[in-house]
Amino acid sequence: MIKKIGYFSLLALLVIILAACAAKATEEPAPSLAGQTVTIFSACGEEQCKVFEQNFVGFEERTGIDVVVEGSPDFETLSVVRSEAGDPYDILNFPQPGLMASMAKDGFLTDLGSFISDSELSAAYSQSWIDLGTVDGTVYGIWHGADVKSLVWYAKPAFDAAGYTIPQTWAELMALSDQIVADGGVPWCVGIESGGASGWPGTDWIEDIMLRTQPPEKYDAWTRGELKFDSPEVRNAFEELGKVWFKEGYVLGGTTGILTTNFGDSPTPLFDSPPGCFMHRQASFIPNFFPEGSEIGVDVDYFYLPPMGTEFGKPVLGSGNLISLAKDTPAGREVVKFMLTAESIEAEVKAGNALAAMNGVPRDWYPTATLAGFADILANADTFRFDGSDLMPGEVGTGSFWTGVVDWVGGKSLDEVLPAIDAAWPK
User: Which CATH architecture has domain 37-147+317-368?
Assistant: First the structure.
């Protein structure tokens, strides 16, 4: 009996093996993606697009996929029109998450969770970045590059000569401002004049303060219109800003200077001797407006705009670009998965064109200490949030919010300004 069981077991095993071999013999090999072309549509200029495309040289050699980067200043219009016509670009490189969220809700983007696992996302990004690419619980975007806005630029030679130290908290920042006034200087330069866009530098201040006084969920609710401008939370942000902008002796030229100084000219007094002001809060792009020949780290330097308490850690306000899959193909999926890696931004980082949003980018890839410092601020951020006014509907974000800041600096009360901003929100 034992021998019979062994015989039949062996026979059954042989049948299984033969069946498996037969199935394997008829199984089609995985199709090669070599020769496939994937187009990434972006808002980049010609030279930026060229460097962006260089990121994919190694990937193309390994996979045979040809990655083409196409740029246009009409990105927003063309990406929507092509998708509505049923002929979408393969991948969209969104300059901000607002349009990405809108297109996701309209059904034009692919659920990235269908081929990227949660563990892969968590390995590549902090949760804050993942949240910013999520719409209604589904991940539709992964972040590529970023810019930092939470910066204070300062007149380094005079700052050092006076023995001032970099403030680590908002209270220390205000104490430093008081000390500069006591020493006969002016702490701040502020300029919000920008033609038809006047007021926008003030919105960045408000957004930075919101991130330092409220949880990120409140910030998100505010940018979606669920938390009104005329709420205690947002009113408090304006009031905190007023303690800087409207305090006697704090800002060069007072409120008149704030209203009439162009944003690009506002940091210039940092370079005077003695400096017309000691500090200027502005994003990482502002060196483009510094006097010719200025050297960061010598003539001027920067520090992170400090938190207002410990409750919300070290938040960072910024901007950036994120990748979404509009045409779901095997080749497109491979490109998107590649863009989780540091290699996918290497050319741009080394050219000084981008700060990486994903983990794993070596600090020595950045060509200057300034850019490496920006990257450190991003890496150490407990929360990253996108420029709020860019997320709001145009009627508010680039409309009533801008004009409301101008009206407030011009003398209108918050009781007038805040309800007027809310009134512009689309019904």
Answer: 3-Layer(aba) Sandwich (3.40)
